[in-house]
Design the sequence.
């Protein structure tokens, strides 16, 4: 049996007629930038997240960068960034003219609240929180610290559309948030797409202007912005998919619960701890391996796809050679980068697929003894 780690063709063909209709309508309308499909998706997504404002952008990286820029921080301010994430989280800080300070992650692989305070310096202006793998970071304590030190909180929700924290959706908790609709994300477009969400009307207005050449009307440019808008076709497709996301996320949770139960005794693949199973959206299902290479090989031979998110902690990337400080070497993020493994958890898996992955993984457990 083949069990791929993602199945975008399957997901799209399941709702092919709705998607085709949305695309056809968009072609017939002759509107390709902005217009009703973008406005509708923005208000639907804001409602889904439970936040006042949503601004579509070209992709998730731009969303992060624009969100940071909208805060109007002093040039070269320091922003705290978790050491385990996709590079975009850090890139957005440098690209918007600020300095990165890496903070280690905790057992949940999210920014370590215990290490947050000691990382704050005189020039620290904001914290970027990543809800990695679809699991919310410890927002209550992060907000409390941010308030005490007068810092902005930016949420990187790229992997966490639909994730909740104490009942609120991520993306509605910090000052401003960025989402990615990269095809493989929980809510994926059929190309690049992203969004910013915020309860602040001021930050929303500023972000929207930055993303659209610093203007609100056609030729009145109030400041220099850039071009990062959500395509009309992507917006139309996203509106279709948003109707199904509830069922898809529920399916991910169902599969994750099965895995957690099945791998309780497995010493070769130990699932990462989870804060709250009902609020986690399992963009990835991640476990810790002693012998990751062997596990990957055995699964591959059995037809089960895997991925590693991510094989290098951000401070270890060549791109950040100059920002690497000696303490980074001892980061939990670095240790875990050699041990983590993601297995298939997407909504297109059948019960047979899930049982097969479980059987193969538990066979590894007995084979390796
Ligand atoms: C995917 C991702 C991004 C970037 O999103 P794009 O739409 O690919 O630009 C940023 N942060 C994290 C954590 C991501 O997983």
Sequence:
């Amino acid at each position: 049996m083949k069990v791929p780690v993602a199945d975008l063709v399957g997901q799209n063909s399941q709702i092919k007629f709705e998607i085709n209709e949305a695309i056809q309508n968009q072609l017939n309308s002759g509107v390709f930038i902005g217009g009703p499909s973008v406005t509708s998706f923005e208000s639907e997504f804001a409602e889904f997240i439970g936040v006042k404002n949503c601004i579509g952008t070209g992709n998730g990286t731009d969303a992060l960068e624009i969100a940071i820029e909208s805060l109007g921080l002093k040039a070269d301010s320091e922003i705290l960034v978790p050491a385990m994430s996709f590079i975009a989280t850090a890139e957005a800080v440098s690209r918007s003219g600020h300095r990165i300070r890496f903070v280690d992650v905790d057992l949940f692989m999210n920014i370590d609240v215990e290490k947050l305070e000691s990382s704050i310096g005189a020039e620290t202006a904001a914290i970027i929180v990543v809800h990695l793998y679809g699991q919310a970071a410890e927002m209550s304590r992060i907000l409390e610290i941010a308030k005490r030190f007068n810092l902005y909180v930016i949420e990187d929700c790229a992997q966490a559309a639909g994730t909740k924290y104490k009942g609120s959706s991520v993306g509605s908790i910090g000052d401003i948030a960025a989402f990615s609709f990269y095809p493989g994300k929980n809510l994926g477009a059929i190309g690049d797409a992203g969004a910013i969400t915020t309860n602040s009307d001021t930050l929303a207005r500023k972000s929207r202007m930055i993303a659209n050449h610093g203007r609100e009307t056609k030729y009145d440019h109030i400041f220099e912005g850039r071009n990062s808008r959500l395509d009309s076709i992507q917006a139309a497709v996203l509106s279709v998919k948003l109707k199904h996301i509830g069922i898809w996320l529920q399916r991910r949770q169902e599969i994750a619960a099965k895995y957690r139960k099945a791998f309780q005794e497995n010493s070769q693949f130990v699932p990462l701890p989870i804060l709250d199973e009902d609020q986690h959206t399992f963009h990835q299902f991640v476990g810790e391996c002693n012998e990751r290479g062997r596990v990957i090989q055995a699964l591959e031979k059995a037809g089960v796809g895997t991925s590693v998110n991510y094989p290098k902690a951000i401070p270890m990337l060549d791109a950040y050679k100059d920002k690497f400080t000696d303490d980074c070497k001892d980061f939990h993020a670095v240790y875990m980068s050699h041990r983590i493994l993601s297995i298939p958890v997407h909504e297109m898996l059948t019960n047979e697929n899930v049982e097969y992955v479980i059987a193969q993984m538990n066979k590894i457990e007995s084979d390796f003894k």
Remarks:
- The chain is about 40% helix and 15% strand.
